[in-house]
Design a protein that fits this description.
Number of strands: 8
CATH class of the largest domain: Alpha Beta
Strand order of the largest sheet: 5-6-1-7-8
Radius of gyration: 18 Å
Shape: globular
CATH superfamily of the largest domain: Reverse transcriptase/Diguanylate cyclase domain
Low-confidence stretches: none
Strand content: 15-25%
Distance between the termini: 36 Å
CATH topology of the largest domain: Alpha-Beta Plaits
Number of helices: 9
Helix content: 40-55%
Number of domains: 3
Mean pLDDT: 91
């Protein structure tokens, strides 16, 4: 049945991915992008996150061991990131009913079609962005923005989805496990402060939040 859906398109590790487009030697290795004046880490590749490097970590504390652990660092280039973001948003506006830019590397889109058709649209969006910019994205598609964000997380975390997830096509057992694994702060509209307060109430996962009586 033809229906309207909301898609969330999110570039994977945007700043790092943008740097990798112009320097392929950064592929498949830990990379951090640094803040103005190279003070701290403002973006990390998955490989860097796997090393336990948190957002905001001071670069001077990593410099001494960077070569030993194979860590590469790049100064932030916000002009480049802005140009690449503009390319993506322009493409998305041509491939959707409507577009709502959420951040420099995220946008909500309106799609219309059957489940198969919107899944195919998500695949096409992913491939066109990769072709146009070289940037990898994940696409989550659902009936609401909240579920579209969860679908986007599923697209990132479940390899079998290959970067595109239509929430209504995911088995219930899989969605339940995902809701249990994801922290409550991943819910669209819940900020850091609210998440911290919810954690203090024992509401840690999205499943906890859904099942609470309060």
């Amino acid at each position: 049945m033809t229906d309207e859906y909301i898609a969330l398109v999110d570039v994977n590790s945007f700043y790092v991915s943008a740097e990798r487009v112009f320097d392929p030697s950064l592929l498949d290795r830990p990379v951090v992008v640094l803040s103005n004046n190279d003070g701290c880490c403002v973006a990390m590749s998955q490989e860097a996150k796997d090393l336990g490097i948190p957002f905001g970590y001071p670069w001077f504390k990593l410099q001494a061991t960077a070569d030993k652990i194979g860590l590469a660092a790049r100064s932030s280039n916000y002009e480049l990131y802005g140009e690449m973001s503009a390319r993506i948003m322009g493409l998305l506006s041509r491939m959707s009913i409507w577009t709502e830019v959420y951040s420099i590397d995220e946008a909500f889109l309106g799609l219309r079609g059957t489940l198969d058709e919107v899944h195919a649209a998500g695949e096409q969006i992913k491939l066109e962005i990769l072709r146009l910019t070289g940037l990898p994205v994940c696409v989550g598609i659902a009936k609401t923005k909240t579920l579209a964000k969860l679908a986007n997380q599923a697209a990132k975390k479940i390899p079998q989805l290959a970067g595109v997830c239509v929430w209504d096509r995911v088995p219930a057992t899989t969605t339940e496990q995902l809701l249990e694994d994801l922290p409550v702060g991943e819910v669209w509209g819940i900020g850091h402060r609210v998440a911290k307060r919810l954690n203090g109430m024992g509401i840690v996962s999205i499943k906890d939040f859904r099942d609470t009586d309060e």
